Every structure is written in structure tokens, then in C-alpha cells.
Amino acid sequence: MCVAVRDSCAPLLLCHGLSWPDSLDCDRFPADEDMCLASLSKEYKHIHKELPKPICQTCPAVEEFFTQKRVLDVFCANNFAMASGTALIYDDEMTSCKLLWDDPECDIEVPERLLSSYEQLKHYHLVERCIHVPVREGTEEEIMLVHSSEYLEVVKSTQTMNEEELRRVSENYDAVYFHPNTYRCAKLAVGATLQLVDSVISGKVHNGMALVRPPGHHSQRNAANGFCVFNNVAIAAQYAKRRYGLQRILIVDWDVHHGQGIQYVFEEDPSVLYYSWHRYEHQQFWPLLRESDYDAVGQGKGKGFNLNVPWNKVGMGNSDYLAAFFHVLLPVAFEFVPELILVSSGYDSGIGDPEGQMNATPECFAHLTHFLMQLANGRVCAVLEGGYHLKSLSESVCMTVKTLLRDPLPQISGEMAPCLSAVESIQNVRAAHKPYWKCLMYEEATPLHNLSTKSQQMMEAELIQTSTHPTAKQAVGTTNSDEAIKTDRFLESHMKKILFPVPPVKTAAAIVSKADAHLLPISVQVEMEMNAQELKTLVSAFDAELVKEEKALLSLQNVLAVLDKILKKKVCNGIAESSVASVSTTFALKHCFDFGLQRVLCIVVGDMDLELDLDDGKILLMNICQKQQTEKTNSKYHISLNWKEDAGRNNFFCAVLGFILPVAYSYQPDLMIIVIGPNRSLGVNAISLLTCLLQGLAESRILVVIQDTEIKLVQSVAKALSGVSTPDFGAYAPASQENVFEIKQLKDQLQQEWKMLRCSVKDWISGS
Ligand SMILES: [Zn+2]
């Protein structure tokens, strides 16, 4: 963080009762001293002149302060674009190691994995939007944060070996090959990962991705394993702890294999939360380890900090992965409050991969990335691990990078209902972790022992004597390449279907007091008042009567100005202040259907009566309010959630993750309207959380209608919608037993209709 800026502004902020860094979006400031505002100010005299003066006696009037803040915001946006950017780390030298002999076990780990990913990034013009950070070699000292010096010497010695010697040393490990360039590439892979961590933690960039080879998550203190030589991500976590003193790091391993190497390094360490889902098939799938199962929760002080979600069958897809995020990873991660997220970003969990044989399509990784970006103030470092179907791999890499760049997400495809086997795994992990996490404290389900996949699995195992290496299926030969071509074709048309032109402006705002415009993030486009005649024409097309009512007409003005731009895809999302939110919302919904939308999710926060026809499923109305509606009966399209906020703390995580998101993803809206009415039972932080997490849906098309003119709320929602940075969600508070009961009741009532709610087998049976 720029010390000069902070020091010059801090006293001023203090005068006005505002605190650094909140008031100045300090995450946009660069970290290095030499990049600071003070040293640049000579070139920007006109701005320097207007910088806050750090003396209390000459403290400017409040209005003046806001002008200055705006000047600073503009300055930062123009000059420190880097600080909000996405790093991409790639060097084609990491393609210089490859398999030199015949080995069906290892021949899928090819240099083309990097080349095709990078080519595809170029194809989508993503490379030029990222900040290029050069690679470096990891030092011996850094490698030894995880590996022994003996092992380091072995890897080093392979540099000068001939093919015969390389083969022999490779045979000492499981599913590994060495090449004379392996040592150099592996050192670059470590260095690239650490460069990414440095760039993100120092604030030079917001997030980023490192495309590296060889991968890392299987390698262990004394052993290479499963194509992995040095454990890039585990080294990065140790490095971040040592160098930056971080105390809570989340590692999300979405590769289809269990990263047992990472588990071994951190299983006794409560400062690193490791989450992995993996193809397991009752221990019949490589690496065939008992400790990959759900009940390996960590050891000693690390108990509860190792989350394994074993997949006991192949074919898991988008809804299974999302269900595991909603019901396992995200609740625990928000409770953990990580300071940094490292992603062991393997794409063999994607469709068409010969290793994983799963069905997740590339946009699924966009959604997973989006959720992680809401944690750790958005500090996400994705590091490539596996991924062996080149097209599937490269499209998924692109979806990840596009999301890190904060583009709106494509709608997720496929039926939104997790399969029985996925729900069984989720239930087991939740039950195993119940003692360690408050978010699971009231979980009623217990571990299942008779899994639906077990008997069939055992029979197959006896019949075929499943091979013990990761690429057993390779032996099938031609059918695999036919499958691969089929996936190529599928992905070619699928990507065309889901990708869409990004609107030129992310967020628009129509607010009552235009004088408050300077309090919004700089990137938000402030809507000017609509021409009265224009408005009348627009309104009379739907409701001639309404035009006569001047007051109603005025309250519609802001809402229509923004909604119209969203529908015409001139902006992604927006906020509108309206004095009569209920009339405006009713009208807005009508406008949506006249425009041709099929499904609108309408979430009302506060007390408000909307007269809507909810039978045809075109509207899903969710009302979050404090008052107990004794008479109410919830139906598929009309849901009431009684919620009372915990004073000063945010207990809404449980409702958003366990209920609202699963319902919203099951419904798959074309647009969302969030209405904040009077007597709202949620605070600013909870509303921001809701707004941020819902943005994965409907291509981020959200209209937030706010009735109370409360600038702090407007600001926070604007921040959430525009994505300039992750807003503050407030301190985590666990849900009370009463809260949990409310959610559970709703789940029982609705899981038959909204299948993403299922997180235990009881749910599945009653809901099937
Ligand atoms: Zn893998």
C-alpha cells in the first residue's frame, strides 16, 4: 500500500470519522513505494494541488472532502489500472519438457496442454487484457519449504542424465517421467506460482492465473508423483505464510484427482484449509488412497481443515459441482475467512477429459471462480494442475481468466439437480465436519455407510480388476480418440451458444440526488433524468392510466431508465432509487415480460405487498422480511423467508448459501430484480453479499430498486454490482438455531421443486 497516500489522507479521514482503507478503496493503490502518488504528483500538478491536506486545522468542509475523494478515485482509476487487474503468467519455456519414450501411463501430459490454453486465451483477446508478469525460477530455499534436500538433489541430477538413466529414475515414482529439462521447468513452475502470489498480495494485481508445467499437487516431500515434480501450490502457501505472515490460506483443488501431496503437507496445520473433490470410486481410482475419503478431516490441530469430497462415480456435472460448493465449501470458507485463495486449478474434472470422465462444461469453472472471488477480498491465484482434453482444458482456462477479469458469466447449462451419489458424498462430508464448523453445528444427517454406488462398484472391481494407474482407460485406444473428437465438436458449438457480447458499461445508477453521484465508484454510469415526453411515451405503451398519475410516473422514472438499458444490453446491471418501490417493481416486471423475458427472480427485502400473478412461473418471488407471517404457505413461486439480522454481525451467509443461491440456480432466471423496501430486516453488508453472489446468474443482469434513500446502501450495492472490488460483508456470524430451523423448514417444503437444495439423502428420497 502506498504509504505516502495513506499518511497524507489518514488525518483527513480521521477528521471526518471515516477510516482508511475503507473510504479510499485502497486496494486500487499500488504497493510499491516507488509507484506511490507522492512521487508521481510532480507530473500531475493539477491533481496534487487537490490532494487532501493532512492538517486538521485546515480540514476542508465535508463537501470538499468528497470532491477530493472523487479526484483521488479518478486518479487511481486512470493511473493504477494495474492494481485492479488480472495477472497472467506464462512462459513457453515450460513446454520444453516432454515424455521421451513409450509410456501409456504418462503420454497425456504433453507440452500442447500449455500451448493450446495460451492460444485460446489469445483467440478470445484475453491475453491483452491481462497484466503480463514474468516467470522466474523458484530458489532451492523456496523448494525446500515443502521438499527435502535429498529429493531436490535427485531432481537436479536428472538434468544431465541420458534417456536410459531418466527412465530408471522415473520408475522409482508412481506415474512420473523425467526429461533433461524437467528440473528447469519445475523450478519455473514454482517461480511462476510465487510471482503470482507476490503480485496479488502486494496489490499490484487483484488476482491472476499461472499456466505452469509440470503440475504440482501430487508431489510429496520426498517423491515425485502423478506427473508432479515440485508442489507449486503447497510451496506457495508456505511462502505466503513465511513472507507475508498470512494466517489463513484456503486451497481449493478442483482437479479431478486428490491432491494428496497438499493434504500431507498441511494435515496438521489449521492455517491452511485444503478442499479437494476427486474421482474416488470407493478407493478404486488412482491414487487409490484410503485417506482421500471424506473422513480424512485433518489431524491434531489441523482437524477440520482438510475437506475431501470423494466422487464415487463418474459423470459428475455442473449441478453436482455447484451443490458441493453451496453445501460444503462456501459455508466453511466464509466461516474460515481466508486472506488468500490458491486454486489447484486442474481441468481434468471438465467434460471430455479421459482421466476424470466427468461432465462439467467450461462455464462451470467461471461460476466456481466467481464464488471464490467473493472471499479473501478477491485475492485469487489460480495455478494450473491437470487437464488432458486439450479443447476442454483450454476453454475452461479461458472461462476462468475471463471471470477473473470480471466479465459477466455465461448462464450455466444443464439440469440443475445433483445426482444421488453426489448428494451422498456431500452428506458424508457435512456429517464428518460437523464438530469443527459452526455452520454445520445443527446438521442432523449422519454419515452413510451403504452408498448407492457401492455394490455395483465392487462387482465391477472384481470383474475387471481395475488397473492401478491413472490412465487405465487409455488401453481402450480408438474409442478414446473418437470420444475426444465428439467432445471437440460439442464444445465448438456449446461455446458459441453460451458466450455473449459483454455490454459496454457494467453498472448504471439512477439516483434521486444527483449531487451524490460522486460517492459512487468511478466506473458506475450515472443516468440523467429521462426526458418527460420520452417517459410518457414509454409508459403509455403499457398503461395509459398510469401516465395521468404524476407521482407514480416520477417514481417509475429511475427504474425504467436503468431497466431499459439492461434489457437492451447497454449495461449489465444497475441501481435505481424509487420513492414508490412496489409500483415501480410491478411495472418493471410487466416491462420485462413485454420485452420477452421468460423468468424473472424477484427478491424483496422488507415489508412490501406486490400484487403479482405468480402461477405461470414467469416470476419467482422471494420475500425476506422480519415479520412472522403465520398465515403464509410457501409455494414453488412464492417463498417467504423470515430473517432477523444479528446486530452488527452478518448471519446471512447461511441463508444465501444454503437456500437463496440453490433456489436461484435451480430456477435459472433471465433477469433478477432485488427490491429493498421499508422495514428491511437485512443490513447493508447482507444486501451486498446477496447482490455479489447472485451475479453469476442471468449474465449478471440485476436491477436493484431501493426505496429508502440511504447513500451508504446505494454505495455498497454499486460497489457490489460494478465489481470494482469486493465489498465488505461484515464480520461472520454463525446462524442461530432458530435461523437454521427456518431454512430447514423451507428446504423440506421446497426441495422437491428446487433440487439444488438437496444436501442429504433424506432430501433426495423425499424429493425424488
Ligand atoms: Zn488431475
From TrEMBL:
PROSITE patterns: FZ. Residues 1-39 form the FZ domain. Pfam families: Hist_deacetyl. The keyword Transmembrane helix does not apply. GO terms for molecular function: histone deacetylase activity; histone deacetylase binding; hydrolase activity. GO terms for biological process: epigenetic regulation of gene expression; homologous recombination; macroautophagy; negative regulation of transcription by RNA polymerase II; positive regulation of mismatch repair; spermidine deacetylation. Keywords: Disulfide bond, Hydrolase, Nucleus. Disulfide bonds join C2-C26. GO terms for cellular component: cytosol; histone deacetylase complex. It is found in: Nucleus. InterPro entries: Frizzled_dom, Frizzled_dom_sf, HDACs, His_deacetylse_dom, His_deacetylse_dom_sf, Ureohydrolase_dom_sf. PANTHER family: HISTONE DEACETYLASE HDAC1-RELATED, POLYAMINE DEACETYLASE HDAC10. Belongs to the histone deacetylase family. HD type 2 subfamily. This is Histone deacetylase 10. It comes from Chrysemys picta bellii (Western painted turtle). The gene is HDAC10.
